[in-house]
Amino acid sequence: MTEPAEAFARACPDISTATEISTGDIVHYYHAKLTDDTRTLRVFTVGPKSTDEAVDETFERISGQWLNLSTYPNVVTVKTRGDKPRPWIAVELVDGRPLKAVQSDLSLPEIRTVLDDIAEALRNAALYNTTHGALSPETVWIQQTDDGVTALVDEWGLKDACQQAAGRATNTAFTAPELASNNTPDMERADVYSLGAVAYYALTGHLPEVPDKRTEASELTPPSSHNSHPEVTSNVDNVILKALAIDPADRYDSAVDFNSAISRVLPTAAELPTIEDEPESNDGNDKDRDGDQRDDTDEEQSNTSDTTDDEIDTQTRDIKPTRQADMGILGAVVIGVSLNMIPLLILDNLITRAATNVSTSIPIYLAVYGLIPIIGIAALGLVSTARSKTKDDDYRRVVHKKDHDLFQRNELLRRLNDIYVYFWERPLLMLGVTIPVTMIALALAIMSDWAPTSLAGMMADPLQGTFFWLYVPAYINFIPLAIFYERKVSSWNKIIGSLSKNQNNIDRKRISRIQIQIIIIMITYLASLGVIAMLDVKFEMIARLYQQGNSVDGGSSVHSGSARSIGRYMPSSDFRAMLLFHAATLQALLSSFIAGYIRGRNFRSGMKFAVILLTITLIMWQTVIPVLKVELI
């Protein structure tokens, strides 16, 4: 009879060999090798006996989330994944042992490091709206080297989620109690419970009591009572018991908050007492001890400096490719800036040629409605190509906090907040509301004769016509998207404050580089807007000069024909105003989308810039340009 692992390897085009490690009805676990890699990997796959589509969908969803996180430290790395013959994921074979196997060997400072690593992995997961859901000593790998210990978080709830999808959910001492009874639990606080349970086990070697056997965290045996580490005090007990509270609202908000609290009460290696015979107290020995203490302090500071340097090296190693990509983005921005003025120069030349009896109406149309969009899209393509080589901006996937006390106390506010959160997490669904509103607004504008329905009407008042046909729809659709997106950015800025010092500095420097690139785009657009305004004034002056020349020469039979022919192809004032206003509006939109793609690799992050630049363009055309014409003509 063929083993499931062998059958899987034969049916999977990417797997050369597979050896069975453990099997179950839902998820199988193999050691395997890829066809293009000689290294042994671990493979998780849906078992051949499972026919539930919900299990397959859950496996693919969780494995996709794991893949997104695997580039971060303290997360087991995903090598690849596939769906033939059934969903599977291949991850690294960790050179270490599970926390469950090494717990008794860990010192208190090492436990503190392990908890810090786990919390860091959960923090990065939260940035991607992802939680673990099944954290336990079996899903945490410990790597022990001469430099210390490192913890890697594994599985990311893959097995448990598939079991639950198949209707076979199991609860352990590390499972938050609400996961068994609440259809919409706060998964981030559920992870806090599991992290607290893992900390309890790491400190004591004992499992915390299963939640359904108690009603309060205070019913737990405090970690300090197990005497595993004499340095574990009641302060540690208080932090652990708060994380293990039955009510999620009584726990810490996040793994970061828990880790900050536990780090304040767990002693470091330098703070642990040393056990040695006390020498006789005399002045000479006191001086020797003082000298030894100074030497120890110097050594600690040296070790701390080395650790900091190692941390910086680790965190900046993955940043170097991103910096190179940022330089590519900057190069694309510079090219886009250079190309941005080409349509305006061509437009200037065409209208000037029209003033010298050359018909240029069609080329003018092509320059405004063809060349400007084409060059803008080309610049956007350059930026998107360079931007695709950088990592996603994490603030786009921040978890929303739904449990503010004010919203929970008031039913109406709670329902309104639920609606807000729904659209906050799915901003594009707002278009289902804003597009119908846009259609109603346009219908009302047409019925009220505010929005022109012909080219002649648009040319008669290009500002009003363009406002109702373009600006009103843009405002109705862009403003809600901008609000929801900026709320996510605000949440990200709060999370930045919880980063480690070095990672904080790295992220802030990266954001600063992005801001500089966006500022270049904004300044370029404002310069283009100024050029367009001056072109409008220039062409108005030329047109009036031709009109004056024709009126002066009109009585002369010698010059009347030639004089009246001068400037006969010159676009009318209304036509020029419409073309230049549309040119400015198109450049505002394209500049906004480019800035948005630089900022967050999507157009939604440019909605704020679109609203701002469109408003600036509207104000410029309504107030500044008329004043310039009065003053200069």
UniProtKB/TrEMBL annotation:
InterPro entries, A to Z: Kinase-like_dom_sf, Prot_kinase_dom
Bilayer-crossing regions: 327-347, 362-383, 428-447, 467-485, 516-535, 577-597, 609-628
Biased composition (Basic and acidic residues): 284-294
Source organism of the structure: Halorhabdus utahensis (strain DSM 12940 / JCM 11049 / AX-2)
Compositionally biased residues, Acidic residues: 274-283, 295-313
Compositional bias per record (Polar residues), positions renumbered to this chain: 221-233
Protein name per the record: Serine/threonine protein kinase
Region called Disordered, residue ranges: 212-233, 269-320
PANTHER family according to UniProt: MITOGEN-ACTIVATED PROTEIN KINASE KINASE KINASE 20-RELATED, SERINE_THREONINE-PROTEIN KINASE NEKL-3
Record domain Protein kinase: where: 15-266
UniProt cross-references to PROSITE patterns, sorted A to Z: PROTEIN_KINASE_DOM
